[in-house]
Design a protein that fits this description.
heterodimer; A: about 325 residues; mainly alpha; two-stranded antiparallel sheet; 14 helices; B: about 425 residues; alpha+beta; D-Maltodextrin-Binding Protein, domain 2; 2 domains; three-stranded mixed beta sheet; globular; signal (chain B)
């Protein structure tokens, strides 16, 4: 019980009812009006960075996307032609479909494992748990390119330990780069890289849950499993949906792993994922205009999907 | 005030080089009265020595070399720099199949204006014709990739299988290899657009035609001619029967397979021996080179896979000095070719260097003392004209992707070229070209 006090105290302070927050921000805004120059100066560095590295490039890319470049005839202003072309481009649509299917399978699996891991870490308080936390987080520290290369070797029939496993029982060796297994192989890399990261997010959220709730549940006769599923999971719902949104956005931008794995797997075509397609349009086919349009269209879709996700989540939360 | 000088320098530097183009910073300039500095992007192996040799022999021009990545990695940076209008080097290494692409991007200087036409007789004719468009000289050839058949002489001898001289015999040999060793394959179908292109070239297929000097917006695409299709018929059949493996080239798996007796042959290029000799330790000395199998017995059709050139970019500050660099980095330079031949294992497109007995008579330990250049040199001499499209990345990408579909069984082999033709024509028309067959 000694642990509960320092943990609950900041948690209670950070998620108070709406009243104190409002009054605090009102107080702050009054201070800003008192020293407008100082306030502006504090914001300035961040503002400059945002303008230089976000607003200006975005504006430039959007401007690019409104022209078309054809190799033979050069650049001309074409309005939204590139967007019409993008949304009727079978290569882009194929890639989108592939990424959506990939996400529908991979995201629940990964977040499920991350949540289970976080719940176990929260329940077990041994030295082993600390070591496990570090080990689970480690893949996230490995650069995605290195991770993809490493898995390329692990999947290899010559060097990898897995491909020949079925031959021990008389089966055929596994081809991880075959069309039927390629998405599974990629999904495994992504899951490996990101599960630990999500686990830590969820674990940190669990740390913020007031311990009194567990005590109450124990007094009510709840089993550890019931506490985990009925008390802890609802308590960190916000963190779970945050992790889910980040993962959905990451999945829509799926690029590094397929780009690296293309060396091992010729089945990864130029339009395998939308982001890979946008990259190839720009840097292989020198069509920066269409690539900008693809990127913008993709960004718009990510925005819609992420917003829809938040919206649905909030509605569901509200109903409960 | 030292502070202002520092700031002024920084500001001048940023203005001259662009905030993000640090790598290309410091192009040709001689405003301080010193030698003209020419920036070069290239990824040749052992290139450092070549640069040093150039700088030692030129007082008024000094080369500043950067390796920004191999092939596609470098092209991505070049295309970005040309789109941005700054950041490109003065001289860039460019492969043959990419020259029309960079011409149509208006990225290359016509070195003919700076006297490069004098070099016409110096280089293999096929290479010079790919590097030029009429009197316009867009590139100076360096190395080529005449194709020949590498094979495991020990295994062929041991099993009494004759070395194929025609592609029909090649298919027979493939079946015999499978019978002799169930894990063996005659080779791998590497789904490499450039390699497939070389095989089609050797089959007499001339699928592309483009000349900016004649008509900027006209391109010929004919990938469905019988000479092109028979390549896919043969290789598709071998892959479907399991006689040919499917590993992509230049992966650890493919190299291990070459070095373990899993592959018995490789229709490879003049630069391949240099590339593989270092990584095939177990089988060194067991390989030999034979001329490419022919489609008609007794014929002498040849092809090329790869090869590269130096180009001068439109962003060069001193195109005249840059042209000298492009022409003389290798050119007739003896120290450069000593490195090129003996350390980097380039196949020289300089006729005198290729004809030199020191090159043709060179015995390779990797090939058990065989003088393999006696085979590669006549191949290069036999190569005729072959043109590329101004969007060759797209064509090679299509060839890769459609072949990969055939290898995975989701497309029939005889539809690979038809689909590629259809997609390439659609792309070309979308890019504003008039397409002829």
């Amino acid at each position: 019980m000694t642990r509960s006090l320092p943990i609950t105290a900041p948690a209670a302070e950070e998620s108070p009812p709406a009243g104190p927050v409002e009054s605090r921000s009102r107080r702050r805004s009054r201070r800003v009006t008192a020293h407008p120059v100082a306030g502006a100066l504090f914001v300035l560095p961040f503002f400059l960075v945002v303008v230089a590295f976000l607003i200006v490039p975005l504006g430039y890319a959007f401007w690019l996307s409104l022209s078309s470049k054809s190799l033979a005839t050069g650049v001309r202003f074409s309005g939204f032609d590139n967007y019409v072309r993008a949304f009727t481009d079978p290569l882009l649509l194929d890639g989108l479909l592939r990424v959506v299917l990939f996400g529908l399978v991979q995201i629940p699996i990964m977040l499920g494992i991350a949540l289970a891991g976080a719940l176990v870490l929260d329940a077990v308080t041994t030295k082993f748990a600390l070591a496990f936390r570090l080990i689970a987080f480690m893949p996230y520290a490995v650069p995605a390119v290195v991770g993809a290369l490493m898995w390329g070797f692990l999947y290899s029939r010559t060097f990898g330990p897995f491909a020949d496993l079925p031959t021990l029982v008389g089966g055929d060796p596994i081809d991880f780069f075959s069309v039927s297994l390629l998405l599974v192989s990629l999904g495994n890399i992504v899951t490996w890289a990101w599960t630990g990261y999500n686990m830590i997010i969820l674990y940190s959220a669990l740390q913020g849950v007031p311990r009194e709730m567990y005590e109450a549940a124990v007094i009510d006769g709840a089993t550890p499993v019931q506490i985990a599923l009925r008390v802890k999971v609802p308590a960190i719902k916000q963190a779970i949906s945050l992790a889910a949104i980040f993962t959905v956005i990451g999945t829509m931008q799926f690029f590094t792993e397929p780009a690296i794995m293309a060396r091992f797997a010729p089945q990864i075509s130029a339009g395998y994922t939308p982001n890979l397609y946008a990259y190839n349009q720009a840097f292989a086919y020198s069509d920066f205009h269409y690539s900008a349009a693809l990127s913008f269209a993709l960004g718009f879709l990510v925005f819609v999907v992420a917003y829809a996700f938040v919206f649905v989540n909030r509605r569901r939360g509200g109903r409960k | 005030m030292p502070g202002t000088t520092w700031l002024a320098k920084l500001r001048a530097g940023l203005a001259a080089c662009g905030l993000l183009a640090v790598a290309a910073c410091g192009g040709a300039s001689s405003d301080d009265g010193g030698p003209v500095k020419v920036s070069v992007w290239a990824w040749y192996p052992e290139f450092k020595g070549v640069v040093e040799a150039f700088n030692a022999s030129h007082k008024d021009i000094q080369v500043e070399w950067t390796n920004v990545g191999t092939g596609p990695d470098q092209y991505a940076k070049l295309k970005t720099a040309f789109t941005a209008g700054k950041g490109a080097p003065d001289v860039a290494m460019v492969e043959f199949q990419q020259i029309p692409t960079f011409i149509i991007l208006d990225a290359l200087v016509d070195m003919g204006e700076h006297g490069a036409n004098e070099d016409k007789g110096l280089y293999a004719e096929w290479a010079w014709s790919q590097a030029t468009d009429g009197q316009k000289v867009y590139a100076i050839p360096v190395d080529g990739g005449p194709m020949a058949l590498m094979y495991r002489k020990d295994l062929f001898d041991q099993h009494g299988i004759p070395v194929p001289t025609t592609w029909a015999e090649y298919a027979d040999a493939a079946a015999k290899i499978k019978a002799a060793d169930p894990n063996g394959h005659i080779a791998s179908f590497g789904s490499d657009g450039g390699w497939i292109n070389g095989l089609m070239w050797q089959s007499g297929c001339r699928p592309y035609g483009y000349s900016q000097a004649t008509a900027k917006d006209q391109v010929k695409i004919n990938l469905t001619a019988p000479e092109c299709k028979r390549v896919f018929d043969l290789y598709g059949d071998l892959v479907e029967k399991g006689l040919m493996a499917k590993d992509p080239f230049f992966t650890a798996d493919a190299t291990a397979a070459l070095d373990s007796g899993k592959y018995w042959t490789w229709a490879a290029a003049g630069w391949t021996p240099g590339y593989v000799a270092g990584s095939l330790k177990n089988t060194a000395g067991k390989w030999a080179v034979a001329p490419m199998p022919q489609w008609t017995a007794g014929a002498d059709e040849q092809g090329d896979w790869g090869g590269s050139t130096f180009t001068v970019t439109k962003q060069a500050k001193n195109p005249k000095a840059a042209t000298i660099v492009a022409r003389e980095l290798f050119g007739k330079s003896k120290p450069a070719w000593d490195i090129g031949l003996n350390k980097a294992f380039l196949y020289p497109l300089v006729k005198d260097v290729a004809a030199d007995p020191a090159f043709t008579g060179k015995a390779y330990e990797f090939f058990n003392g065989q003088k393999v250049n006696e085979i590669f040199v006549p191949v290069s001499n036999k190569l005729g004209e072959f043109q590329y499209t101004p969007f060759q990345d797209f064509v090679f990408g299509e060839l890769n992707d459609r072949s990969a579909e055939a290898m995975s069984g989701s497309r029939s082999w005889d539809s690979v070229l038809e689909e590629t033709q259809k997609n390439v024509v659609a792309y070309a028309e979308q890019q504003g070209f008039k397409v002829s067959k």
